[in-house]
Write a structure and sequence with these properties.
961 residues, alpha/beta, Uridine Diphospho-n-acetylenolpyruvylglucosamine Reductase, domain 3, Vanillyl-alcohol Oxidase, Chain A, domain 3, 6 domains, 5-stranded antiparallel beta sheet, 24 strands
């Protein structure tokens, strides 16, 4: 039965989990974090271990390929094609954690950071910690023998495995214990599999001893050193499976070793003029027993946002073009610092020109580690926008030969005209790189293949491995044969045949490999498509397709805790609702063979439906994927010429500025109506969820109040006039914020003025994909303030989402409009104005503490540093929980069908934090949506920073009187 449709029927009949053969699912799982693409036949999400066993058995009987998948972060094409079984959705429980024995038993879908968090309560951790820890699963780590930053001290995943429960490709269910931990393997020593592995070890002992297990990062191929009988314990079949990439057996559960975390750590940051110089320093570092020896280079650091780069330099990043982050432990901070200083002195004495910084503050260490942690994604784009790729990102050599390898690699890259950003595990000789290969054109692909072959020869000449951590997958399996030779490859084939006789488990990986240039995902139709778009995509050469290539699949958007990106995924845990999943679907829409309807695709529309347009990915994604913009673009084209097909909310809330302007004529009548028995009908007509209360319109708009008050001549203000932007939310729904801002601006010496006629940034039309209207509205508003902009006036925004339009979307929508560029350069938040243009002004003493919800667009576009400074100057003790998006996100949380998810997002962190805040703690939220979500989900009222400052000014005035 090799028919996927028949297999899908059988699976649905037997499994409690989900079986999908629809176009959306097949497109979602067509790639991972690699350069490769292979559309799966089916996608299976087993509910539990019994489901997984049944799925494996049925797929094996069908004859179709079986490919296991965890977080989908594999960078070598290790988890694509065939029947993809995703264990991350449900098989993600920690079954047991024994702090005395220092072990944990986990299901294969457990995310590493969840295990680390559970172990941390007992002073323990898991030794192997790849940079993808926030989404990497233990099953995938076992399959690839993942290593991570601390492997120099605590070894690879294989070194930390105690036992595996597996089912082989032949259908045998086995419990495999690692010899030496006091547990015997449950299989009988006379079984066929054990006998065959013992025979292979004896038969090829000389070959294995000479070529395998030669250094810690020799990950490529099968770990044949574990076939050898050491101390009478027989072959170590559990560790043989580590790094076998799911080609021999499927992990059902694993028992892993936990290690004691050091009481304190210090970080030594070493700067060098280039990579080889840094590599030459490693022998002087290792005698100090470091926990980590990690590298980053300037091409990567230059990709950091300016504020992050500044934070890194302030945290202790010294001068250099290559840096090593060396972590040492100690019984306390003083002991760790002492070892760090001794190490720093040794390197300074041994390596001419080395620069040194010793960092003991945990906060500063975290800033520096972010540079390394985000390297996988950051390295995919150079500062000039050129694209860089994996494909030769994982080679390793013995640490003593690392300098020779880097010099040889630089020479080889020079011959091919390549450049690339590097990062990696210098302490173990493993270098990760992203190189500016041309994977689009035929000539570029040929050069890529030739380069990888020559680079393999270089690595082999130095006693190295083509894979030092990420596995062979589709990227390096053919190179592993070149590396080890035909005789070793023949042993691989025998091992594969013994464990998986029919060859159904992850075919073409390690054994029977495809060429390294087969199935490259960017060497297809999508890469060459040039679509007519509304946004200009200036950072992607004006190409929507190139913008979609930003997502390389590293999956940071799948992290289960922390950050703004991606709020819907953090609740649903569905790949469809991750930023990566949506980006993959958009790419598949361009490819056109699975998603075939182009802009009319319902599969893409449905995936984008739960995107909150929070822009969290613009900041949190290492390559700045901007899904909010992509959603607006897609939605515009999807409904083009079909206004009747749009959701009703696109008219009721997308046209909010017009609705609010009309409501302001008789606000009392409108408010009574929206709270009357007609409210359910009005909500239904407007596509508004029945459970949501419609916000009340102000009795007097902010603009009306401002005109009525008779403001003093702004030109006479000590610091001159500033243009205060009367956004729709401030003007019609929360004018108290505008009034407070006027009070603060005048107290700080500014003369606030308003545009002479009604203006709007077009935000609500942008977020609902009505881009033609948005451009007209934005263009008209810019013309209305043109004299002020051209005179150099500053525009002050109070609503973060509207302010962000000027700082981000405006120039993309109106690339040929000089006024849009002026607005981007001259628009500031209130806090930015106070800190940069009135640095000598002392804010009023507010005092106390405030629970602060940072608006998503402020996090992603505007920045929050100035607000922190103003609050500190006002004596406010700011508590900023890692709450991410509030969940309302403009119109999203009001739309029919979204309200429950919106509340669940809010309930993750924000709403409970607000409820638990003491009564005397202010709740601060500059965004109207955030304040509304808090008001409708708690008994508290959140306020704008301007309101807190204005209240304090009034108190000071009252005291003076």
């Amino acid at each position: 039965m090799t028919d996927p449709t028949a297999l899908a029927r059988s699976l649905r009949a037997e499994l409690r989990g989900t079986v999908r053969d629809d176009a959306q699912a097949r497109a979602l799982y067509a790639t991972d974090a690699s350069n490769y693409r292979a559309v799966p036949d089916l996608v299976v999400l087993p509910r539990d271990e019994e489901d997984l066993l049944a799925a494996v058995a049925l797929v094996r009987e069908s004859g179709l390929p079986l490919v296991m998948r965890g977080g989908g972060t594999s960078m070598a094409g290790n988890s694509i094609g065939g029947v993809v079984v995703d264990v991350s959705r449900h098989l993600n429980r920690i079954l047991d954690l024994d702090p005395v024995a220092r072990t944990a038993t986990v299901q294969p879908g457990v995310v590493l950071t969840d295990l680390i968090a559970a172990a941390r309560r007992h002073g323990l951790t898991f030794g192997a910690d790849p940079s993808s820890a926030s989404r990497a699963t233990l099953g995938g780590m076992i399959a690839n023998n993942a290593c991570g930053a601390h492997s120099v001290a605590w070894g690879t995943t294989a070194d930390n495995v105690r036992a595996l429960d597996v089912v082989t490709g032949a259908g045998e269910r086995l419990h495999l214990a690692v010899p030496g931990f006091g547990e015997r393997a449950s299989y009988d020593v006379d079984t066929r599999l054990h006998r065959r592995m013992t025979e292979l070890g004896r038969e090829h002992r000389l070959l294995v001893e000479r070529r395998f297990g030669t250094f810690s990062r020799q990950i490529s191929g099968y770990a044949l050193q574990h076939l050898l009988d050491r101390d009478g314990g027989g072959p170590d079949l559990a560790r043989l499976l580590c790094g076998s990439e799911g080609t021999l057996a499927t992990t059902l559960r694993a028992t892993v070793n936990l290690v004691e975390a050091p009481a304190a750590v210090a970080l030594v940051v070493l700067g060098f003029p280039d990579g080889p110089a840094g590599a030459d320093a490693v022998p002087h570092i290792l005698p100090f027993g470091p926990l980590t020896v990690e590298s980053i280079n300037a091409l990567l650091v230059d990709r950091l946002p300016a504020d992050v780069r500044g934070e890194a330099e302030a945290a202790g990043l010294p001068q250099g073009r290559t840096w090593l982050l060396v972590e040492v432990g100690g019984a306390d901070r003083e002991a760790a610092g002492r070892t760090a200083r001794e190490l720093a002195d040794a390197v300074r004495d041994a390596v001419a020109g080395a620069t040194v910084s010793v960092v003991t503050d945990p906060g500063a260490q975290a800033v520096l580690w972010r540079c390394r942690r985000d390297g996988t994604g950051l390295a995919t784009r150079r500062v000039d926008g050129a694209e860089a790729w994996g494909g030769w990102e994982d080679a390793a050599v013995p640490p003593a030969r690392l300098g020779d390898y880097l010099r040889g690699l630089d020479e080889l890259m020079g011959r091919f005209g390549y450049s690339g950003a590097s990062y990696g595990h210098f302490g173990e000789g493993c270098m990760h790189m992203r190189i500016d290969f041309d994977l689009v054109t035929d000539a570029g692909v040929r050069a890529f293949r030739e380069f990888t072959e020559q680079a393999t020869d270089l690595v082999v000449s130095l006693g190295g491995s083509v894979s030092g951590e990420h596995g062979d997958g589709r990227a390096r399996s053919a190179l592993a044969r070149r590396m080890y030779g035909e005789d070793a490859y023949a042993v691989f084939t025998e091992v594969k045949r013994a464990w998986d006789p029919a060859g159904t488990l992850n075919p073409h990986v390690i054994v029977d490999p495809l060429p390294v240039d087969a199935g490259l995902r960017h060497h297809g139709r999508a890469a060459h498509r040039r679509l007519l778009t509304v946004f200009s995509y200036p950072h992607d050469d004006g190409s929507f397709a190139q913008a979609q290539r930003r997502c390389v699949g590293v999956g940071k958007c799948r992290q289960s805790h922390g950050g703004v990106m991606c709020p819907s995924y953090q609740v649903t845990r569905e790949e469809t609702h991750s930023t990566r999943g949506r980006a993959h679907l958009l790419w598949e829409m361009l490819e056109g063979d699975v998603i075939t309807d182009g802009w009319r695709s319902e599969e893409v529309r449905d995936a984008l439906d739960l995107c909150l347009s929070c822009k969290g990915c613009l900041q949190d994604c290492p390559v700045n994927v901007d899904m909010a913009t992509y959603k607006a673009e897609f939605t515009h084209h999807h409904y083009a010429g079909r206004p009747w097909a749009r959701p009703r909310s696109h008219f009721s809330m997308g046209w909010l500025p017009a609705v609010a302007r009309a409501a302001s004529v008789t606000p009392s009548l409108v408010n009574r109506t929206t709270r009357s028995r007609l409210a359910p009908l009005l909500k239904r007509a407007g596509g508004i969820d029945a459970s949501r209360a419609i916000p009340a319109f102000a009795e007097e708009s902010f603009v009306s109040w401002f005109r009525r008050r008779g403001a003093p001549d702004p030109a006479q203000a000590p610091r001159g006039p500033v243009l205060l932007w009367p956004d729709t939310f401030t003007n019609y729904l929360s004018p108290e914020v505008g009034r407070a801002a006027v009070r603060v601006l005048e107290a700080a010496g500014f003369g606030p003025v308003l545009p002479e006629r009604g203006v709007c940034c077009g935000l609500t039309w942008i977020s609902t994909g009505q881009l033609g209207v948005a451009k007209r509205v934005l263009s008209r508003s810019l013309r209305a303030i043109a004299p002020a902009l051209e005179a150099g006036a500053l525009v002050i925004g109070l609503e973060p989402s509207c302010t962000a339009v000027f700082r981000h979307e405006a120039t993309d929508l109106l690339p040929d409009e000089p006024l849009a560029r002026l607005a981007r350069e001259q628009t500031l938040t209130l806090a930015e104005l106070l800190r940069t243009r009135a640095p000598d002004w002392q804010p009023p003493r507010v005092g106390g503490s405030a629970l602060v919800q940072v608006h998503c667009h402020q996090h992603s576009v505007l920045g929050f540093a100035a607000d922190r400074e103003v609050m500190a100057a006002a004596g406010i003790e700011a508590q900023v929980p890692d709450s991410g998006c509030c969940g309302l996100a403009g119109n999203f949380g009001f739309e029919a069908g979204h309200a429950e998810l919106s509340r669940q997002i809010g309930e993750r962190v924000l709403l409970p934090a607000v409820r638990e805040a003491p009564a005397d703690t202010a709740v601060l939220a500059d965004g109207f949506s955030c304040r509304t979500q808090i008001a409708q989900g708690t008994s508290r009222r959140a306020r704008h920073l301007a309101e807190l400052l204005a209240d304090a000014l009034d108190r000071e005035d009252a005291q003076r009187r």
